Amino acid sequence: MSASLLRRVAVLVLEGAKPLDVGIPAQVFTTRASMPYEVRMCGAAPGLVAGGDGLSYHVAHGLDALDWADIVFIPGYRFPDREDPPRAVVDALLAAHDRGARLAAISTGAFALAATGLLDGRRATTHWHYSAALAGRHPLVRVDEDVLFVDEGSVLTSAGAASGIDLCLHILRGDLGVAASNHAARRLVAAPYRSGGQAQYVPRSVPEPLGERFAATREWALRRLGEPLTLEALARHAAVSPRTFSRRFVEDTGYTPMQWVMRARVDLARELLERSQRSVEQIAAETGLSTGANLRLHFQRILGTTPSEYRRTFARSE
């Protein structure tokens, strides 16, 4: 991998950092031959950082790593609603953003990002337990407590620890394409297809067995994207009425069933464009999109690009 192609990732470990939040970006973007990323763990200063849940971290780098990074992850930390991070940390985040780095907060790391003012007037999320506190402490932030993550371009936020995986995979999809993201998901044994609009948690009114049944139906549909998939067929697999299936599917994923199917088909088309030399017409037939014209229409609507342009950007040489 050429050094010029490497993307540089800094994980900023603050006092009281939560172990899963720290480990997720470190593992997803771990430096390896198949991944064009270099990861550095950093803190307000090099050395020992007292973490949360009985763990501490020894970081090799201080805030200078933010001057180096293309992406800065801010893991969640304990008691984020009590006081802002040190001024030097806030200034370093602002400087990194001004230089063009993306800033991505996991869980309560959103509080540190909000302290910079960069979330003012923008949508953001955090762990549902802290959503009201984030809105109260930073009233200019448009807090959305009902999503897994929010991508506002140069600033990104996610909910609890597990949704940090979804955010990292979302970033991978944008950087390297669907095939690389799905490969990383398989390595992590994580769900490869969870949208930012999916709900953080299932409402109490939805019984858990039904939530499991819906997950099974989504897996069933993902294996049959090239076949006709209707609302009635999905509901029949879940053993509920189409009306119940549609309503609760939206609560669970943030999309209607047919919107979700369409995005899944486009994602499969993206992977085939990246990893094969099949024609657009062949890919449209294999993914259930019928015709090349239909594939181009939905590519433009969902991704804002064409299949040909996407293939030029993400096609692999393997």
Describe the protein's architecture and organization.
- This protein is an alpha/beta fold and 318 residues long.
- It has 14 helices and ten strands.
- The chain has helices at 19-28, 64-68, 87-99, 109-114, 131-137, 161-176, 178-188, 208-222, 231-238, 242-253, 257-275, 280-286, 292-303, 307-314, and strands at residues 7-12, 37-42, 47-50, 56-59, 71-74, 102-105, 123-124, 142-143, 149-151, 155-158.
- The strands form three sheets. Strands 2-1-5-6-10-9 form a six-stranded mixed β-sheet, sandwiched between helices. Strands 3-4 form a two-stranded antiparallel sheet. Strands 7-8 form a two-stranded parallel sheet.
- Helix 1 links the parallel strand 1 (7-12) and strand 2 (37-42).
- The model is unreliable at 196-209 (pLDDT under 50).
Radius of gyration, taken over Cα atoms and rounded to an integer in Å: 20 Å
Strand order of the largest sheet: 2-1-5-6-10-9
Order of helices and strands: EHEEEHEHEHEHEEEHHHHHHHHH
| Number of alpha- plus pi-helical segments | 14
Instruction: List unreliable stretches of 5+ residues.
Output: 196-209
Overall, the morphology is: globular
Mean pLDDT: 87
How much beta, percentage-wise?
A: 5-15%
- What class, by secondary structure content? alpha/beta
What level of helicity do the residues show? 40-55%
Largest sheet: 6 strands, mixed
* Count of β-strands: 10
* Terminal residue distance: 14 Å
